[in-house]
TrEMBL record:
<dbReference type="Pfam" id="PF00651">
    <property type="entry name" value="BTB"/>
</dbReference>
<feature type="domain" description="BTB">
    <location>
        <begin position="31"/>
        <end position="103"/>
    </location>
</feature>
<keyword id="KW-0805">Transcription regulation</keyword>
<dbReference type="GO" id="GO:0005634">
    <property type="term" value="C:nucleus"/>
</dbReference>
<dbReference type="InterPro" id="IPR011333">
    <property type="entry name" value="SKP1/BTB/POZ_sf"/>
</dbReference>
<keyword id="KW-0862">Zinc</keyword>
<keyword id="KW-0238">DNA-binding</keyword>
<protein>
    <submittedName>
        <fullName>GZF1 protein</fullName>
    </submittedName>
</protein>
<dbReference type="GO" id="GO:0000978">
    <property type="term" value="F:RNA polymerase II cis-regulatory region sequence-specific DNA binding"/>
</dbReference>
<dbReference type="InterPro" id="IPR050457">
    <property type="entry name" value="ZnFinger_BTB_dom_contain"/>
</dbReference>
<feature type="compositionally biased region" description="Low complexity">
    <location>
        <begin position="155"/>
        <end position="164"/>
    </location>
</feature>
<dbReference type="InterPro" id="IPR000210">
    <property type="entry name" value="BTB/POZ_dom"/>
</dbReference>
<keyword id="KW-0804">Transcription</keyword>
<dbReference type="GO" id="GO:0000981">
    <property type="term" value="F:DNA-binding transcription factor activity, RNA polymerase II-specific"/>
</dbReference>
<keyword id="KW-0677">Repeat</keyword>
<keyword id="KW-0539">Nucleus</keyword>
<keyword id="KW-0479">Metal-binding</keyword>
């Protein structure tokens, strides 16, 4: 009697795999490529794993898969016009699926994602920029609405009080000078407007 197949799936395995690869990279273990980056005279070298870079970046995948067997496997890749901090953030993202950067660096991260053809980072930056833009637009809309309501209340300050004040004139006409009515009553209303 055959039993039905069951699915064994780990929710934590992808995260654990990324964490372990990141630890191996940080310790320099099993790294088979060094990426050298230089920007305006600032240069740094980053040990990494070809498999991780190729799996996350079409640029690196093309570089590693198109190596000539005559030259042997490439152990160094040189990137110019890439800032050291940006490439460090790129590596952290591809090894952990997350990275914290300043808001003003999001555009640069998008540019490096496009240069290195890293779709995940590109989509993440694009979504964050979209959220930031929506937030700014919402703030502008709220500011504009508050300005409009202030202008309307400045232009028509007595709309609400005038509706409440309409019953007063009949009362003041009934109340004559000897019945507690003030001669200033009707004159005070235009001041409120």
């Amino acid at each position: 009697m055959e039993s039905n197949p069951v699915l064994l799936e780990s929710k934590s395995s992808p995260i654990n795999l990324l964490n372990e690869m990141q630890q191996l990279r940080l310790l320099g273990h099993l790294c088979d490529v060094t990426v050298s980056v230089e920007y305006q005279g600032v240069r740094a070298e980053f040990p990494a794993h070809k498999a991780v870079l190729a799996a996350t970046s079409k640029f690196f995948k093309d570089v590693f898969l198109n190596e000539k067997s005559v030259d042997g496997p490439r152990s160094n890749v040189f990137l110019n016009e890439v800032q050291v901090a940006d490439f460090a953030s790129f590596l952290e993202f591809v090894y952990t699926a997350r990275v914290e950067v300043e808001e003003d660096r999001v555009q640069r991260m998008l540019e490096i994602a496009e240069k290195l053809k890293c779709l995940d980072l590109s989509e993440t930056c694009f979504q964050l920029k979209k959220q930031m833009l929506e937030s700014v637009l919402l703030e502008l809309q709220n500011f504009s609405e508050s300005q409009n309501s202030e202008e309307e209340s400045a232009a028509h300050p007595s709309i609400a009080p005038a509706a409440e004040a309409e019953p007063d004139p009949p009362d003041s006409s009934i109340a004559g000078p000897g019945h507690g009515a003030s001669p200033e009553g009707p004159a005070a209303k235009p001041k409120e407007k």
